[in-house]
């Protein structure tokens, strides 16, 4: 009976722990216009550069979707790298996911639209920006973490915003922006 007297309140406390939805993304910090850039370059050239820039940050292309000949999306995913005290480490269980849409208008005009969001244990958060990916067949599952989970501030979309901004800046340095 004593065990039940101790275990029952502990179970009740755990069952009543408030939960919080994980729904951070780059959309919290950047408007769609801030994540779109156009170049007078072929999609092949732009795609190659984008893939190199994501790979340099530890994000691999994990899926590709073709909406039509002029509209393709590449999805990238990988662990989050965090800097602390001059060294870099991988944040335990927290990563990032990105969708990059390549829109072409003729052989030498490519527009990019970038979108990113955090992952927790490999699962990406759902966000209102996901509706823009319906044409690719992309879906995600909504999930929650305990309200007292210490990682909430790491999954708001700030890091994904930084990656997107850096990639756009590097592309803009490489080629004149349309």
Care to describe what's here?
The strands form 2 sheets. Strands 2, 3, 4, 5, 6 and 7 form a 6-stranded antiparallel sheet that branches. The chain has 3 helices and 8 strands, in the order αββαββββββα. Strand 5 (87-104) and strand 6 (110-120) form a beta hairpin. Helix 2 packs across helix 3. With 178 residues, the chain is an alpha+beta fold. The model has no long low-confidence stretch (mean pLDDT 87).
CATH class value: Alpha Beta
Question: DSSP strand (E) fraction?
Answer: 35-45%
Please describe the biggest sheet, giving its number of strands, its sense, and whether it closes into a barrel. 6 strands, antiparallel
Domain count: 1
- Tell me the Rg in angstroms: 20 Å
Shape: elongated
Poorly predicted spans: none
What's the architecture, going by CATH? 2-Layer Sandwich
Helix content: 25-40%
The run of helices and strands is: HEEHEEEEEEH
- The CATH topology name reads TATA-Binding Protein
Which structural class matches the secondary elements? alpha+beta
- Terminal-residue CA separation: 74 Å
Q: Given the structure, what is the number of helices?
A: 3
Mean pLDDT value: 87
In total, the number of strands is: 8
Strand and helix map with partners:
Elements: H1 2-15, E1 19-21, E2 36-39, H2 43-56, E3 60-68, E4 71-84, E5 87-104, E6 110-120, E7 123-124, E8 144-146, H3 158-174
Antiparallel strand pairs: 1-8, 2-6, 3-4, 4-5, 5-6, 6-7
